[in-house]
Automatic annotation (TrEMBL):
InterPro entries tied to this protein: HMP/HMP-P_kinase_dom (IPR004399), PM/HMP-P_kinase-1 (IPR013749), Ribokinase-like (IPR029056)
Any matching Pfam family: Phos_pyr_kin
Reaction it catalyzes: 4-amino-5-hydroxymethyl-2-methylpyrimidine + ATP = 4-amino-2-methyl-5-(phosphooxymethyl)pyrimidine + ADP + H(+); 4-amino-2-methyl-5-(phosphooxymethyl)pyrimidine + ATP = 4-amino-2-methyl-5-(diphosphooxymethyl)pyrimidine + ADP
Protein's name in the database: Bifunctional hydroxymethylpyrimidine kinase/phosphomethylpyrimidine kinase
Keywords of the record: Kinase, Thiamine biosynthesis, Transferase
Residue stretches making up the Pyridoxamine kinase/Phosphomethylpyrimidine kinase domain: 23-267
MF terms (GO), sorted A to Z: hydroxymethylpyrimidine kinase activity; phosphomethylpyrimidine kinase activity
EC numbers, comma separated: 2.7.1.49, 2.7.4.7
Gene: thiD
Entry annotated with the keyword NAD: no
Pathway: Cofactor biosynthesis; thiamine diphosphate biosynthesis; 4-amino-2-methyl-5-diphosphomethylpyrimidine from 5-amino-1-(5-phospho-D-ribosyl)imidazole: step 3/3
UniProt keyword Amino-acid biosynthesis, yes or no: no
Top-level EC class: transferase
Amino acid sequence: MSDLQAISLSPIVPVALTIAGSDSGGGAGIQADLKTFAFHGVHGTSALTCITAQSTMGVTRVDGLPVEAIAAQIDAVVQDMRVQAVKTGMLLNREIIAAVVERVQSLNLRNLVVDPVMVSRTGAQLIDDEAVTLLRDVLVPLGAIVTPNRYEAQILSGLQINTLDDMRAAAQRIHKCGVSGVLVKGGGMAGELRGVDVWFDGDCLETLRTVTVETRNTHGTGCTLSAAIAANLALGQDPLTSVKNAKNYVTEALQFALEIGQGPGPVGHFFPYLTEHRRLNYKSSP
Ligand SMILES: Nc1ncnc2c1ncn2[C@@H]1O[C@H](COP(=O)(O)OP(=O)(O)OP(=O)(O)O)[C@@H](O)[C@H]1O
Ligand SMILES: Cc1ncc(COP(=O)(O)O)c(N)n1
């Protein structure tokens, strides 16, 4: 048997789990997470929390799933597979957050990346006040890494964020709640700070910069980033390396973001790696 055959017959593929909502438009939520896991060579599993009717134009309807159905999905995956990393995304309401917290604790889920989906990058609150409190006080402290955007970081820290120093102060304040690593994301910052993130893990306070991509097609950046961090953790990378690799991936996916639909299009999860030939075919399509 050749080496190639031996490898393909017994692949040791890491497994990651996303606990998040569905985006019918395919740009964010579970759809973005599974594409990101696949890109990284990680087997993606999912526990759906809610179904959004959504497109690049926005969300027109949201239906939460029964908490028993959410818990059953998590149990089914974890009882069968060795899940190396988990990410949470849109958890919608208090009941769903409480159910996820209960499963994370009972099953002792490790390498948890909490994307605290609470406020859109434009500042609109996506979950009710009670849910915000529970997420902040109970779920975030269980995380290995939490990834708030500018507005979410304001809620978690109680600080206003307008400058890089504010981002740093917020990351340090959020760390005090017990989460191991904090990444304050700068997609919603103005001017030179757009796309600049701040990392704090108790020792290291680091500013992470790639390039600012001039595009309006940024739908799904937050989901993609947290899923890529989870994928890197599943692959055995340390937290800061995972965050840096994930940021590089998101930057590249933004550079190949898709002009699809009438609103801000999604990032291109696989598009940097399509052959030039195939991209030319797309351009010549009607
Ligand atoms: N124009 C950009 N250029 C480079 N990086 C960007 C840009 N916009 C966002 N990012 C990066 O994308 C990642 C996601 O951050 P962002 O602040 O957009 O999160 P979010 O608000 O949760 O996402 P979304 O807008 O999709 O809800 C961060 O690493 C951020 O720095
Ligand atoms: C189902 C679902 N989950 C999360 C988000 C936020 O997405 P992002 O912050 O990545 O744009 C979304 N728009 N829809």
